[in-house]
Design a protein that fits this description.
The structure is a homodimer. With about 400 residues, chain A is of the alpha/beta class. Chain A contains 13 helices and 15 strands. Chain A folds into 2 domains: about 5-85 and about 235-395, Alkaline Phosphatase, subunit A (3-Layer(aba) Sandwich), CATH 3.40.720; about 90-230, Alpha-Beta Plaits (2-Layer Sandwich). In chain A, helix 3 (about 70-75) crosses helix 8.
Amino acid sequence: MPFDYIPPLLTHNNKKIVLCVLDGLGGLPMIMGGKTALETAKTPNMNRLAKEGMIGQTIPIRPGITPGSGPAHLALFGYDPLQFDIGRGALSAAGVGLKVNQGDVAARGNFCTLDKDGMIIDRRAGRIPSNESLPIVKKLQGVQIPGVTVEVEQVKEYRFAIVMRGPNLDHHLEDSDPQVTGVPPLPVKATRKEAESTASLFNQWILEAKKVLADEPKANGITLRGFATDPGLTSFKDAYGLHAACIAVYPMYRGVAKLVGMDIIQFEGEKPQDEFNTLAQHWNDYDFFFVHIKKTDSMGEDGNFDGKVHIIESVDQALPELLNLKPDVLIITGDHSTPCKLRSHSWHPVPFLLWAPETHRPDEQDEFGEGACSHGSLGTFPALNTIPLALAHAEKLIKYGA
Amino acid sequence: MPFDYIPPLLTHNNKKIVLCVLDGLGGLPMIMGGKTALETAKTPNMNRLAKEGMIGQTIPIRPGITPGSGPAHLALFGYDPLQFDIGRGALSAAGVGLKVNQGDVAARGNFCTLDKDGMIIDRRAGRIPSNESLPIVKKLQGVQIPGVTVEVEQVKEYRFAIVMRGPNLDHHLEDSDPQVTGVPPLPVKATRKEAESTASLFNQWILEAKKVLADEPKANGITLRGFATDPGLTSFKDAYGLHAACIAVYPMYRGVAKLVGMDIIQFEGEKPQDEFNTLAQHWNDYDFFFVHIKKTDSMGEDGNFDGKVHIIESVDQALPELLNLKPDVLIITGDHSTPCKLRSHSWHPVPFLLWAPETHRPDEQDEFGEGACSHGSLGTFPALNTIPLALAHAEKLIKYGA
């Protein structure tokens, strides 16, 4: 339970909350004295919301800690990733629609290229494209070993997810990816005694899998990592009383949303307006919407400053459709920073905007950017506070104590 | 113990601390672009203190949580209400001078009006005025049952406090107020086995009480709620080394102050200057004064913006008398926000002013208001930090470690 004092305070109303996450939103100037991508982007709509509402900046995990996508989203949803340890395997499996029940063991899989001696020569199988890897994943789906059942689904390119189901499985296993080339994949090893038979089962499965992959020119080997089981998180409904929906293009984010019990809405298209269109179509079905925009992060990772500016502007241009729905609480933020200058996720605080015209206390800031957010009236605060603040501004919490 | 690292650091001096709480001080603008009540009020004295001293804003309980008065004051006094669970019955009883020892069971009582079939037709007995209810409370004081002693005191109007003393009592009891009319009061029920005999004793007492109230036209019934025993809080003296006094008009606030071991000063009058006069008279007797101004909150709950402005101005006008005493540390803040716009307590951060001319570090803010406080050098911080900050600025804490 993220906040055990919240469920007794929950009260129902028809107000609607939208949490719009621009992945990796926070940035850095490329040169001294410059502006960040968010500050450079022309965002008249976000600036108006910032002027009318209130802004601040969040610490995703802990000060100085650079988060991965999974932990960063869990924090935004109020589940402290240092308290709730959720393996990447469970996230990936959930993200491609594989069920992970308690006792199942999920992992992330990579195709790799092995030479004739079984040494890894490419850890990502030449970044084999998705259309090429799909038939290879189909082959893997036929690989079974006695005593357990194994399910495999494609993630993207050289990546897949795997779930093993059966009696007495234990997920305390070490990654088999050695992280370097010129050596063979590691055997799956148990990190505690109870997991030894599960390690052996995964190693048997890998052996069988290698047989069906033997003729593949690139994807003739496999590594597994992020072994995990269902973390058994309290659902969004139980934790916050919210009937919640996820609108996201990428499986990973659907996976995290699913782990906290959100409904995943299927839709066509990849652009911000496609996502906001989907939101509009389902507006009456939910009281909480998590909308995830991926490409701000991708541009950050690519070091593409103009590209990141452009993505932010495209979200701003699509915003009026969302605003026409008259959300009671709209939060626009990121899960972490991904400065183009660093070409990677970073620990820097994340711009945060909360607009709730009935209940917000406007501050004196009138634009949405890192500099303004560091002066906003919400201050610098843990991302964990996001949902409690949203619930409060939607007047979904009664008074604590008389 | 609120902060176990503080007692070993305490050192005695003659410096005096005043904590002046304007209940429900924080607010919201009534219209977009407007000002809050505090920002609207003409407060030349508070503005001077803000200019000379330092300001910030507090989170009363946790982000997004709207506090009741009891928890909000406990937080200001450094007792985390999520850690120290204190029933309202114990607060009310303490507030009217009834001792609540460990093992005693206290509750809040309401007179109600019952029809001839015993159904509640008015849960507050027509809000019977205090002068009419006093003789009825006297009647109740005569109602006793075998095996225990029962004490009753008037709170105000239709409300009273009750304490039962005797062997093997247990306060795990449910409210008997059904919260609706047209039904009879509920029997007092135990929420655990050990409390069943106590439930039975309260039901016996209510039965006897109904006999003596039978002829009352309005107050012929009783409901009880908020059953609690002494929470056994560490006293202010032990926690902070402070000889502390409470100057408050309303019983509730005296009650909380008493629970943490403050002396309650009796005085005539209800106005800020009456409270500051009382402070002046007892200036040499204590080193910590908690002064509570109630009506800012009442005006907020009534949605009376001009009224709230007026109360804040009346406090400001009375401040010179307090300042003439030359307090070493003066804190002016609220326990929570009560925006006139919402007509209720809220979760919004609370303006906070700390003036300690010998030790404060002045910031660049020069007025006392929500906007300025969100930019103050104290930042946004838990209300729990209030007393440690006061002790520090009064130089009552030695260095931690060498």
